[in-house]
Amino acid sequence: MTRKPTYEELEQKVKKLTNEALEDNRMEKEEKHRILFETMLHGVIYHDLNGGIIGANPAAEEILGMDVDEITSRTTIDQQWQVIQEDGSNFPGENRPSWVALKTGKPVKNVIMGVFNPKENKYRWIIINAIPLFRPGETELFQVHTTFTDITDRKQAEEALKISRENLLEESNQRKILSKGLIDLLEKDRHDIAMELHDNIGQILTSLKIYLEIIDDKLKPDTELRSLTKAAIKRANLAINDLNNSSQRLMPSILDALGLVPSLRSLLNEFRELTDIKIGFFNRNVQKRFDREKELAIYRIVQEALNNIVKHAKAKNVYVSLLKKGAVLSLSVEDNGVGFDQDKAMKISKGKGPLGLVIMRERAMQLDGELTIESILGKGTHLLAEIPI
Fold this sequence. Notes:
By secondary structure, the chain is of the alpha+beta class. It folds into four domains: 1-28; 40-150, 2-Layer Sandwich (Beta-Lactamase); 157-251; 254-389, 2-Layer Sandwich (Heat Shock Protein 90). The protein is 53% helix and 22% strand. The longest helix has 67 residues, at 152-218.
């Protein structure tokens, strides 16, 4: 007959089985931790209470460019580490994340620094987190756990992007300088031509008119010759008026005298007289005077837009509006003409291109503004320029 185990024997057996299960569970956890520690892509380092490094995983060895024995021969604040901050300056040992976590007992998160890799003879950029560890149920710090991720590729991409932005900014500035030179040259040419028309051709026509009037006074009335001189005087007056209008368009003195809005009204009236296009004009909140360069740019944009409409659009109606919205002056020119293919129009072919459109856009860009054009074939074109004032 089999003897039944005593209560004490059963208790001992239960304790033994429990301890074996706990040991198996502990070993299983340790094995999982070891596998994770050795295979994770992040670098991991453990520090003791004096800042000495007591362990490092393979990822840490690769990032730092040294084996585990070399790493564990150092401390957190060892001067052998060649560590720099984001601005390239030295990173003092007492400010490094692992040491701060050790001394304060508080986590340190997402600190970026560069660590020299002796195998590659270059710096690797890492983002580092340091976490103080406490034993379960205790408040006394016993270790610091530091993880870091290699972000060298990201930093290089950021640096390349920064350089690219700086290059683009420099190119943009150079372009603005060149386009300003082009616009200034264009305005100078217009000024010179206007002066030439007024001072030379204008004076010649005025002299011709005076001579004709003198001849007309000396002729007998009701003669065929006098009717011819009167017709010639009339044509001379027309030529002088046309010359004055052309000179005014080239060098709008009214802009200096009266400001932008009256100058635009005068310009629109000229186009109304020369064409059968109905032109509407609306303005709101536009101050009487502001920067002359901006006044001239807006005037020229309207002038060029109307020239294009007359030449190409076959429009019957044009609506021009000038509104001040906050610190921005908004100019809109809209027509109901035939429209155009924008992609095709902006292509330069055989040395020819949409110079008028380009110069309008450059004028706006020179003043830190923006000019956009929307056109639909058969439905017209809308030009919008927004310039800060």
